[in-house]
């Protein structure tokens, strides 16, 4: 795993944007895997700003998002579709953007369809990831066994609690989600893991301990041949 430690979350977003810039300049029709959460917001701002400066564009690129709550209406303010529209898709033009559909009656069919769509476009070139405090990637929660393909997951109490900050009073927070499985994530040719903030320092240390903790899904990335971890100083505090 390649590690880049930056002085601030802003500089970490710049370093992550550099990875995207390099990717899109090398292959204009790249297939990009995208993530949600508070961590990538600054990166998405930076990508939008570089596009508006004309440094590059994403008009031939396609995107696939890691996950979506289930059940969840796409136009609900808390959906990951709404998140992506707000932070990126409204500012940057992509050839196609696919987010798992949290409204379907058959979630398993939706998951299978999603994986075959990724395969049909030749697989993901660059997958962006964040990390949960419990080590989850996408919504692949800590477990003794891991589902490889995109699947319907029961969220852990930790995750529901951590993400409750995004839900206002009276808004229902789902306790399930559709997420790329670790096998789908692993098929990405290149992975960019962005980690910022002191609250992630403990889980970050586990990633760099030189141990594959089986209850930390992000540790599975230790086995992938091309992973870049971009961190700010606060997240790298114990390294
Ligand atoms: C959610 C998403 C993850 C993300 C995580 C961390 O659970 N499913 O993809 O990495 O949140 O979010 P944050 O960046 O807000 O800490």
Determine the N-to-C terminus distance. 14 Å
The low-pLDDT segments are: none
**Number of helical runs?**
7
Give the H and E element order: EHEHEEHEHEEHEHEHE
- Report the mean per-residue pLDDT as an integer: 97
Helical fraction equals 25-40%
| Alpha-beta content class | alpha/beta
* Strand-residue proportion: 15-25%
Strand line-up in the sheet with most strands: 1-10-9-6-2-3-5
Count the beta strands.
Answer: 10
Q: Please tell me what the overall shape is.
A: globular
> What is bound: which ligands?
2-amino-2-deoxy-6-O-phosphono-alpha-D-glucopyranose
Radius of gyration: 17 Å
Q: Please outline the major beta sheet.
A: 7 strands, parallel
SSE topology sketch:
Elements: E1 2-6, H1 9-26, E2 31-34, H2 41-52, E3 62-65, E4 67-70, H3 80-89, E5 96-98, H4 107-120, E6 126-129, E7 151-154, H5 157-163, E8 176-179, H6 182-186, E9 190-195, H7 201-207, E10 227-232
Parallel strand pairs: 1-10, 2-3, 2-6, 3-5, 6-9, 9-10
Antiparallel strand pairs: 4-8, 7-8
Helix pairs in contact: 1-2
